[in-house]
Amino acid sequence: MIPLRQTSAAVVTGALALSLAAPALAAPTHNPDPWEKFNRKSFAFSQAIDKALFRPLAMAYVHVVPGPVRDGIHNVLSNLNEPVVAMNDILQGRFKRAVTTTARLAVNTTIGVGGVFDVASKLGAPHHDNGFDVTLGRLHVGAGPYVYIPILGPATVRVLVGTGVDSLSDPLHWTRYPDQTTINIVRPVVGGVDTRARVDDQLQALLSDATDPYATLRSVYLQNEESQVQDGQPAADQPLPDFGDPTPSGTATPVTPPAPAASAPAATPAAPAATPQNGMTPAPTTAPPAPAEPASPAPAAAPTNP
User: Fold this and answer.
1) Helix/strand number for the chain, H first, E second
2) Domains in the chain, number
3) Three-state SS for 306?
4) Which among 1, 19, 6 is positioned nearest to 160, based on CA atoms?
């Protein structure tokens, strides 16, 4: 399963062409997954390919390539994406972020030797993800139906459109340089392997114990996409549906303790029984009625007649 944002411009442009016809199918609906039948088949096929090919390739990459080298490759790929991040920062009106992103690009490209070393993060300018799908979301464009693209992984119509725009707006897509075709092929492949290796632990933990792996991944993906649009905050006006078990056993038959009856005061004498353990003498149970006898001062009224 290769993340969609790591695909080549050619593939994404084709997906964009297909997605342009999707708005007619992406009418407002309470069902985020109207193509579930196709998506489940695509998920099953992709899982089989991932188990047979992509995960072994990612694990071989981890075992063969030393950690510092993998970090350098990841940093270079991240640095190459900074222009797209900066562009979307500007489109979203986040000018301070755009300045930070531009500074990251300048520092890591020069001092960081082409982005191999993430010097900017150590200087207090960490990387943040951004894309045109997030820009559309912040303009209140709906996510559209959920779709699981074979091999490439989960997406929504908004993510398809956003990824296509990001790929076409990448400066490297228009710049002419030696071995451009080779780099355009190697970059998404290496990026896909790098991303697959980095998310392996989280992916295994997410899907290994899930009763319905497809629904679990769908729920987490949609929540993550909405969280990015909301800048890390869950959307208050767009609650996500609960894809879990609608009738969990723990809530089907709630147990409520019986209400105390009128005879509850009769149980109070049991409390003094525990006090002798401290060496104290419990007060007699007839102590409350005792003050009632002095409360009738009949003799006090008699001396009024001399």
Assistant:
1) 15, 2
2) 1
3) coil
4) 19
Rounded Cα gap, residues 262 and 259, in angstroms: 10
Query: Is there a contact between 214 and 232 (Cβ–Cβ < 8 Å)?
Result: no
Which residue range(s) make up the domain with 137?
Answer: 4-229
Question: Which contiguous run of DSSP H or E holds residue 146?
Answer: strand 146-149
> Do the Cβ atoms of 6 and 188 come closer than 8 Å?
yes
73 in a structural domain:
yes
Residue 193 near residue 61 (C-beta atoms within 8 A): yes
Token pair 């896909």: residue: 192
Asked whether the beta carbons of 104 and 127 are under 8 A apart, the reply is yes
* DSSP of 168-217: HH-HHHH---TTHHHHHHHHHHHHHHHHHHHTHHHHHHHHHT-SSHHHHH
pTM: 0.67
250-274 pLDDT, tens digit each: 444 444 444 444 444 444 444 444 4
Q: What residues are paired with 155 via a beta bridge?
A: 147
Q: Is 286 a domain residue?
A: no
Spatial CB neighbours of 271, under 8 Å, sequence gap ≥ 6 = none
Q: Identify whether 263 is part of a domain.
A: no
Q: Tokens at residue 115, please?
A: 């982005």
In a domain, residue 257? The reply is no
Query: What is the distance between the alpha carbons of residues 11 and 164, in angstroms, rounded to a whole number?
Result: 9
Which residue is it, tokens 């929540």? 223
* pLDDT tens-place string over residues 25-73: 444 457 899 999 999 999 999 999 999 999 999 999 999 999 999 999 9
CA-to-CA dists, residue 259 to 52, 254, 255, 262, 270, angstroms: 60, 15, 12, 10, 19
Is the CB of residue 253 less than 8 Å from the CB of residue 247? no
3-state secondary structure of 268: helix
- Measure the CA–CA gap between 296 and 294, rounded to whole angstroms: 5
